[in-house]
Every structure is written in structure tokens, then in C-alpha cells.
Amino acid sequence: INTSRTPLGPRQDISRIAYYTEYDRHLAAAVSAGKTMATAYLDSNLNNPLLVGPKTQLSVGVSDRTMAGSVDRVLKVFHHSEINTEQSFWSSNIRYGDATDVRGIIQKILDIHKVRWTSCFGLRLTCCQNRDQVHWLHPDMGVSHIREKYEQARPNEEWRYELRIRYLPKGFVQQFTEDKPTLNYFYHQVKNDYMTQYGDKVEQDVALKLGCLEIRRFFKEMRGNALDKKSNYELLEKDVGLRRFFPKDLLDSVKAKTLRKLIQQTFKQVANLNDEQCILKFLETLAPIYRYDKEFFKCALGSSWVIQVELAIGPEEGISYLTDKGSTPTHLANFNQVQSIQYSAMEEKDRKGMLQLNVAGAAEPLTVTTASLTTAENLADLIDGYCRLVSMETHSFIVRVQKEGERALPSIPKLSNTEKKLEAVRKGVRAISVSEDLSGDETDDYAEIVDEEDTYTMPSTRDYEIQRDRIELGRCIGEGQFGDVHQGVYNSPDKPSLSVAIKTCKNCTTDSVREKFLQEALTMRQFDHPHIVKLIGVITDNPVWIIMELCTLGELRSFLQVKKYSLDLATLILYAYQLSTALAYLESKRFVHRDIAARNVLVSSVDCVMLGDFGLSRYMEDSSYYKASKGKLPIKWMAPESINFRRFTSASDVWMFGVCMWEILMQGVKPFQGVKNNDVIGRIENGERLAMPAQCPPTLYSLMTKCWSYDPSKRPRFTELKTQLSTILEDEKVQQEERLRMEIRRQVTVSWDTGGSDEAPPKPSRPGYPSPRSSEDFFSSPQHNHVQRSAHGGTDSWNHLRTEHSALWSPNMEEGGCVGQALMEERLMKQQQQMEEDRRWLEQEESLMKAESRNSRGSVDREDGALQAPGGSQHIYQPVGKPEQVAPPKKPPRPGAPGHPGNLTTLCSVDSYNEGVKLQPQEISPPPTANLDRSNDKVYENVTGLVKAVIEMSNRIQPAAPEEYVPMVKEVGLALRTLLATVDETIPVLPASTHREIEMAQKLLNSDLAELIAKMKLAQQYVMTSLQKDYKKQMLMAAHALAVDAKNLLDVIDQSRLKMINQIHPH
Fold first, then answer.
1. CATH number of the domain encompassing residue 980
2. Buried-most residue among 238, 604, 822, 995 (CB within 10 A)?
3. What's the pLDDT score for residue 770?
4. Is the model's pLDDT at 826 over the cut of 70?
5. Are 333 and 349 in contact (CB under 8 A)?
6. CA atoms within 13 A of residue 716's CA, in its CB half-sphere
7. Cα–Cα distance, 48 to 515 (Å, whole number)
8. Does 377 fall in a domain?
9. For binding ATP, which residues are annotated in this chain's numbering (predicted)?
């Protein structure tokens, strides 16, 4: 190996490398002598390629000087592999000694693949300049002799060593299905041969079928209709590449649009096959075109009088020949009949080869004359391999007068390198990154893999190993995939009695489990961020422990469920913002987390969360994405391209972060509850998304939907999310302060009006409406089968009221609240009494109502109810035809009581969508309208007009078609525009100190209208789905909220007018 052709980054020191490997992203035929490749060094005493040693020396203890002088003792061998579903040709560079033979090289690579059919493999030497020059290397030949023999004619760079399956047992397909690694290796070998040698020889329909079978096998989770989506097909075409699946001639000869339709149609025909069925179908379809189960040699039978034939060697027929292509094979011998094999060069100028087989029962040897000695050698190796396979012997059947460098020494012994790997873990694995070869072509199929310690920003170079006697193991506080988490104490010299979290490994008896478990620690040590859990140390001896920073409040999901009634909206948005800063940091470090969910976020304090659980995290190389092959993955949190293509990028992390934000706003509810994992991708591809949480601001939900864009390129980056979440958080804090101030003012006003009577406390400003400002309930999307939960407060003031008036019914009682049984029964009795009083009060109200003119009181009739003008303190919606009550009723309904119009259970009690969604009477929560002269009061008239428009829309929307929604909402919008214009005209004459409050009320109305429009669009979009009922109800609730806030605006203006009157005429 010419080390100058393998740049190693800033330090050209080959001793830094213990092992690294590279893959061929294209096909075997694309290799040329001038390409620069990375290499993988394996010591002859090692049997695993996963060893990484310390910086200054090789893990096997070879010094720099020794290694520099032994570069020529490395053999590069190409072999088929598929790691992380990235199909490719890999090359591993294996260090060998004087006693190393071909059998030892083969065994070394097969240890990587873990195959059982080791006797099927052979090593082939091919000339890169002349593909017809092929030498099959016998297992007994010494590697040193091979290089000396063949590199005299051509330099090392022009030779390519390939590991192939050459000797097939009878019924090999059935045999290989019992050994999946062997089946996969054989499949990749055949597919590679097809793409490089036979791709231009097959019919178009056959090439399409073979390509779609490979797509189906390669993307196991992809649905049958996934390629119908343009974004999925473009991802397959541009990111993955159609050249991976289809021959170049097909792609060049068919137009892109036609090709897309053909691929979509053909893929649906094989969509129901699993990966093994795809492989078997591929081999079956290709068999008539490419006889991968046989090898053919043009030769002559006999030595003196010869017959020109084509000799066929295969597992079923044994040794046979054909006189022409259309003839029936003539059987010559079975492999178990062959007693010895001998070959030599004939005494002629053309140097033909001669092969003799001693066959049991035959009177004379079977003699075969070949065109060259090389062909005779390859034929002899093939028959010898079959004989060894059939007889299950390791000795060769070839007899030579003069042995050509064979070694009688045993193969390389296989020693365990477990301790060396664990030592590498203790020292810390250096990053592996892909760097561009500046001298190479941009279309180069090979990438240089360089071992650069500076690829990761190490927070410290200190040793992370901790002595076990310094750790005091405490109680178990959680369980994970690989182990349990315990609370403990670390007695360090710097910080004695430091509380820590200790992650223990459940089943660390095997090396692979220990390596996977410690991988999380190796990942965590790369990071230093205030919202990422810090690694304190590791104990690599059994039992293996990882010591981390302790977050005393546990995981976020459980914390949200326990504290759901004490956390305000600003705090929830703060959690999302903090996570966005951590993920932006990971994005800058080019890491994908792959498991962003509330369960993997830890709570350090009430105002601080930390991202944890890096067991699935991976470093992204220059390809900017990572492909996962095996293991359990969080399907319900994953992006569609991750489910379909196992493709993980920063964009897929953005999708998962959007789901995590939804979990936070839903206060611990899991996504897609009741939906099977297999059905999730279908719902996503049908356009369904998680419904907006109850108290989620529209701007935040809009940000979530951007995170859930099906096309990854349309999702925002974490840096953008961090900025937008910061803005949303600041806005929410301002609105929170404003709501608190208005709530205090309302409480004072109510206390003046009631004169200290024992009335129920004032209701929140918008009962029964899941707005971003306050909420009594949240709706669960029906397609996710979420259980509808009881109401919870959405503002600080309302939470405060719940605390002070603890005698109110607790919504969490059904879920095991801490209220005693006796107190619960007492409250139920009180509620029954209140229900009866409410019923009698409603009857009294209806009997006392008087019919007055619409101008004087502003009532608006409708079929099933009437709207009282904003001048009263009664319900917005009332029955038609009843006289209006002169004085307010004595008993207003209580908030939260059964049958109360603000209760969402009443609002959503309609079982069927077709039966209608009707707004029930709802009480105006602000204080009564001031007793002012309403003549020529334009604001009053326009508020009444807006409420009329809302009622008209509510009455007409039930039987209306989706295309009729727009005119109805437009009428509401025009009424609101007229109202806001009137308010703008009124503001200048009002006191300047009240302008801010009026402007806030106007902004609230604009937000309400935007929310109504958004709900209308959703109702139109999902009109034929299971979501239509939910979104239609939310549309009606948004309209009702608009009417309530219009009444609030009138109250604010009335208060401003009273203030102005008091200033002019002080008492």
C-alpha cells in the first residue's frame, strides 16, 4: 500500500490507525487503479474488525517504525456487505505474516460476516486493467508467494482480491435460507454481477421487476403505495439513486416520467413480499438469464484426439459438457467420484493447459485441454473446491509434482480480542469521518475515511474511568432498554457526596451488549451543554456502570402528568425552547439523536429540562444521514422517511421534536394512542397529523405543523426553531402578565357588584374553548383514540383560583386524586343540589322573559336559541320566543356544574356528526355591561352585528357543504372588520391610559378570527375523514370564542367611557 495515496488528515501517521474500513457506493466494476481508498488493518492474530486503539500506538503493540516498514505486509480484500442497510462493496486490509495462507485470509473475513457455510467461499484475484485476467487462489497457497508471483507482472495497485461464494451445495437456495448471512452474501454477489455484466442484456420488464424487488428488500418498512408520493419518489431518485436498483441502459432509454409510472406500477406487484421472499424471487427471475449456479469453460476433451466442448461445473449436474448452447448436457462424473486432480502446461509453444481427473470406476483419467494454464488452474480449483465441499474434507484433491508456494502450516489461529476492544472503549473511540479527496473526481464512488480526533469537540481529555468503591448505589429510579437507572452518591475528591444517576447494564455477559451499552457513554462525552445530561464517568469492568448527572425530578413525561395542574403555558413553552437549544447544539455537532421524546427528557428543576438517553444517537458523516438496520425504533415519533427508508437526519430529528412538543403541550399524553405501529405511516401519508393541544397558541401549533412537513427539505432547522420558540415564549409571558392583570380587575369588579354575597367565584374568561390563552378542556383527536380527560386550567389566575377555592370539584379525582372518599361524596351531593337549583332557575328565567324590541335590548332570534345583546349579564344563547327578564335572575349557574353551558362534555355530547353539532347556551364570563345610553353607540351595534353573524353561521353550518364554509366565515370577518374600524374611530376620544387595554382586546379578536379560519380549513380538508366531526366542533367553538371576546371588547370600552365620565364629573 502506498501510504502517500492515503491522506490521514493533519497528521500523516499511519500508526494512528488500528482499523477503519470503507465502502464502495457503486458496483464492483467501478473500481480503477488510480482511486484513493481508505483501508482497514487487521492483525493476523485478531478476528474482529471493530478494534480501535490509542493514538500513539497500534492496539496490537506494533511500533511506528515497525509498522512503517511493514506496509507491504497488508492484503486488501474486497467483500460484499450490507451495514446499516447501506449495500456496498467493502474492502478490509488484513495484515499477514510469512505463515499466512489464503485459507487464513478467508477465515478472517468470514469471522466478520458470521457465516456457517465457510467451505463455499474462495478468493479471486482480478486484474483491474484486464477483467478477463482472473486467478482463483487455492486455500493452501501462501499469501507471500502469491504477491511475489503476480506482482512481478503487474504492480499491486492493478490487482483486486475479491472474496466470493464459488462452491455451491446441492439445493443451495434452501440450504442458504437456513443461514441468513450466507444467503445475503450470495444475493449481493449475484446482484452485483447482474448490474455490471448482464444489466444491458435483460428485457425492460425484467429489469423493472428485479429493481423493484431490490427496493422492496432494501426498504423493508415502506408501504406499497409509498412511491406514489412525489416526495418519496424524489428521495429515492435523488438521495438514494435509481442507479443502485436499475441498469444504466434502462435509465437512459426510458423517459423520466414514463419510468416513474413503470416503477410505481411494478413496485405494487411486489409490495407484499418480505426481504427473504424478495431475494428468492430475484434469484428465480434472474436464473434464466444468468446461470449463477454454474461455471462454463471452453475446452477440449482428450489430449491427442480432442472434441471442442463447453465444460459445465455445478452443484446439481456435477461435471458435464455441452457440444453447443442448445444441446442437453452430457454427464461426465460426480464430485464424489473424483479421486485426484492434476494439471500442467503442455509442451507446446502456445502453452495450453491440461487437466487430468482420476475418476473412480473409469478405465483411464478424464483429460481436459484448456486454452491456457491459468484456465486449467481455475478449473482445477473449482473441481477441488466442490470435492472438498461434498466430502466435507479440508485437504486438497490436487496433486502437484512441484508445489507452488503452498504452506503446510495451519491456518491463522483465531484469538479473542474482547479485552482489546474494551480497552479501546476505556481509552475513548476517536471519530470516523469522511473527507473529500481533492484530487479525485466529484463522481468518485469511493470516499476517504479518515481517523480524525478533532472531528468531535472533546470537552475534556481526562480519563472517565471511575473506581467502583467511590460509588454508593441507591434505589432504582427507572428502567431502560439495556439497564436500570439508580440514584447514588459519588465520593469524588473534588465534590464529596455528589448525587449522581447510575445506569447499570442488565445483561452484560456478552461483548456485543457491553459495547452497545457503553456506546451511549462514548456519545455523551462529546457534549457540553446546559440542557444535555453530562457524563461523569464509566466503570467498564463487570458489572458495567455509566455515571451521569442526576436530574432529581425524573423524566419529563411523568413530571408533566403529576404537575399538570400547576404548570402554566409559559413553563411548557420554556421546556420546548430549552430542548430546541440542546438539539441545535447537536445539529451543529452533526449528531442525530433518533429518539427525541418526553420520556427521554429529564427534569433538573421546575424551570430546567435536559436531553438524555443517547443510546440511539449516531454521528453523521458527509452524507448527512444515517441509516439504521436493526433494533427497536420509536415508530410513533419517527418521521415518514425514517419509517419508510430507515433514513435519519437532522430533519427527521425536527419531526420528532415536533411530536415531543406536542407531548409537552398535552402534558404527558403519548401520540397516536390506540393506533398500531404498522398503521401510523398510513395515517401520516393520508395527511393526518396530531390535533392541536387545548392550550397551544396557534403560532406554536403552526410551528409544529412545519416540523411535520412530509418533505424533509421543508422542515425548519433547529436554529430557526430556537429563534421562533424564543419569540413565542416572550409573547406568552407578556400575555400571561396581561391576563393576570385583567383577571384581578375582573375579580374586583365582581366583588363590587355582588356586595360581598356568597356567589360562586368568577369563571375564566373563555370557558370551554381550547384557546392558547385559557382552556377548560382539551380535545383528543378521535383517530388516536385518546381518552378525553377532565378540565384543567390554562392561566395563572385560574390555577390560583383553583388553589384558593379547593372545595371545587377536582378534575383529577377520577384518576386517583388525593381527596378522601367522604369529601368526594359530599361534593357529589352538593353538585346534585346545584343541578336541581340550576334547573329551577332556568325554568324561572324562561317564564319571566319579556318580549322587547330588538333595538332596545339587541336580541337576535334563531331557530333553537337567541342571542342577548351585550347590555345584559345573561347567557349569549337563549330559547326563542320567551320574554326577556327585566331583572337579573337570582341564581346564575356555577362553573363546572353538570349541565353548565361552558362544559365541553355538554358541547360535545352529539354522538353522530350527521346529527349536528349545536352550540349550547354559554354564559358570558366578564362582568355585566355598563348601564350606558346605547343610542348612536356604533361599537355596541357592531358588537351585536358580529354576534348575529356568529349565530347565523352556527345555525347554517350544520347542513352546509364544505365549499359553503368560506362565505359564512367571510360574513363574520366583515362584521369584525366593521367593528374594529368603529373602535379605531372611538379610541381617540377615550383616555390615553386605556388605549393599551383596548388594543390588546382588538389583537385578541384578530387572533380569534385567524383561529376560526384555520379551523375552517381543517374542517374542509378532513371532510371525508374521521376527523371531520372534531374539526367542525372546533370551528364552532372558535366562532363562539370570537363572540365572547367581542363582548369583552365592549366591556373594556365601556369601562374606558365610565372612567372618562368620572374624570369630567367627579363625585
1. 1.20.120.330
2. 604
3. 42
4. no
5. no
6. 19
7. 13
8. yes
9. 503
pTM of the model: 0.48
Same domain assignment for residues 516 and 589: no
The pLDDT tens digits of the residues spanning 582-625 come to 999 988 888 888 889 999 899 999 999 999 876 655 654 434 44
When mean pLDDT is compared over 279-283, 482-486, 534-538, 991-995, the highest value belongs to 279-283
Statement to judge: residues 613 and 504 lie in one domain:
no
Q: Which residues pair with 611 in a beta bridge?
A: 532, 601
For the residues 524-529, what does the mean pLDDT come to?
Answer: 82
Tell whether 709 and 578 lie within a shared domain. yes
Query: Would the CA dihedral through 876, 878, 881, 887 be positive or negative?
Result: negative
The last residue of one of the domains, among 167, 193, 226, is 167
Q: What is the CATH number of the domain that holds 648?
A: 1.10.510.10
- How many other CB atoms are there within 10 angstroms of residue 674's CB atom? 13
Residue 781 belongs to a domain:
no
Q: Are residues 946 and 1005 in the same domain?
A: yes
CA 1031 to each of CA 179, 402, 1020, 1027, 1043: distance values in angstroms, whole numbers, following the listed order: 53, 87, 9, 6, 19
Residues belonging to the binding site are 503
Q: From 48, 947, 963, select the one nearest 417 (Cα to Cα).
A: 48
Amino acid, res. 632: K
Of 595, 838, 1045, 1051, the active-site residue reads 595
Averaged pLDDT, 730-734: 90
Cis peptide before 697 (omega within 30 of 0): no
Give DSSP secondary structure letters for 15-57: GG-S---EEESS-GGG--TT------EE-TT---S-----SSS
| Residue stretches of the annotated binding site for ATP | 503
- Residue 39 main-chain phi, psi, to 5 deg: -130, 165
Q: Closest Cα to residue 410, out of 46, 100, 74? A: 100
Contact indicator for 594, 618 with CB cutoff of 8 Å: yes
CATH code of the domain covering residue 98 = 3.10.20.90
Residue 466 lies inside a defined structural domain of this protein: yes
- CATH number of the domain bearing residue 343: 2.30.29.30
Tell me the DSSP string of 383-434: HHHHHHHHHT--S--B--SS--SB--SPPPP----HHHHHHHHHH-PPPEEE
C-alpha closest to that of 165 among 149, 155, 157, 176: 176
Q: Which amino acid is at 547?
A: I
Nearest Cα to 166, choosing from 131, 191, 190? 190
Q: In the numeric block, which cell numbers belong to residue 893? A: 349557574
Dihedral angle sign, alpha carbons of residues 114, 115, 116, 117: negative
Joined together, the cell numbers standing for residue 238 give 435523488
Three-state DSSP at 1002 gives: helix
Strands (E), 397-544: 432-435, 448-451, 471-479, 484-490, 498-504, 535-539
595 annotated active-site: yes
Within 8 A by CB and 6+ apart from 155, the residues are: none
- Based on the domain organization, do 521 and 602 belong to the same domain? no
What is the C-alpha separation between 565 and 263, in angstroms, rounded?
53
Q: How far, in whole angstroms, is CA 927 from its chain's centroid?
A: 50
What mean pLDDT is reported for the chain? 72
Is 729's pLDDT higher than 50? Answer: yes
Q: Which domain holds residue 539?
A: 462-550
Instruction: Give the closest residue to 998 by CA, choosing from 950, 933, 1059, 953.
Output: 1059
List, for residues 278-292, the tens digit of each pLDDT value: 999 999 999 888 888
956 plus 1048 within the same structural domain: yes
DSSP β-ladder status, 74-83 and 159-165: parallel
| pLDDT confidence of residue 614 | 66
Same domain? For 558 and 705 the reply is: yes
Contact 846, 879 (CB under 8 A): yes
Of the candidates 149, 282, 269, 168, which has an alpha carbon nearest to the alpha carbon of residue 214? 282
Check residue 670 and give its pLDDT: 92
Q: Which three cell numbers stand for residue 499?
A: 448525587
Q: What is the mean pLDDT of residues 408-434?
A: 40
Q: Looking at the structure, tell me whether residues 484 and 543 fall in a common domain.
A: yes
How many domains in the chain?
Answer: 5
pLDDT-based confidence at residue 577 (cuts at 50, 70, 90): very high
